[in-house]
Amino acid sequence: MFNGSTNGAISLATGSYMFDCMFSLSSMSATSGNAGFSIANGTGTAGAFLMNWSAIDAVAGAIGAWSSGISVTGATPAAMATATTATVLQAMVFGSFEITGAGTIIPSIQLANAALAVVAVGSYFICRRIGDSTTVSMGNNS
Prior knowledge:
Elements: E1 10-12, E2 15-26, E3 35-41, E4 45-56, E5 67-71, E6 89-101, E7 103-111, E8 118-119, E9 124-131
Antiparallel strand pairs: 1-7, 2-6, 2-8, 2-9, 3-7, 4-5, 4-6
């Protein structure tokens, strides 16, 4: 989805990570401008996923019914929004994962119908290491 590095790969050390992602895709299929999102690809050993997403299959700025869900795998369903004939998909995804074997992850999309989707300027993926791969909390809890 992002091409700032080869295939959009992000190199990560072992540890626990939190991430945020927001994107807008256009020029998608008019049959169903829809897609799934994944961070499970790459050379790193990733697991312990927990991600939440909200998405809409509609033109940018449209007010409509957003779809949302939670996944404990490295991917959302193949269609993360209720399908329409719009050629645009807007989505926000956030969550956490662990890297137990250093390597890369690749934030990516899987189109519901083949079409050359265009990623809008301003779309992003950010991840932050929050501790080692056994981290279960951050800071003091009482």
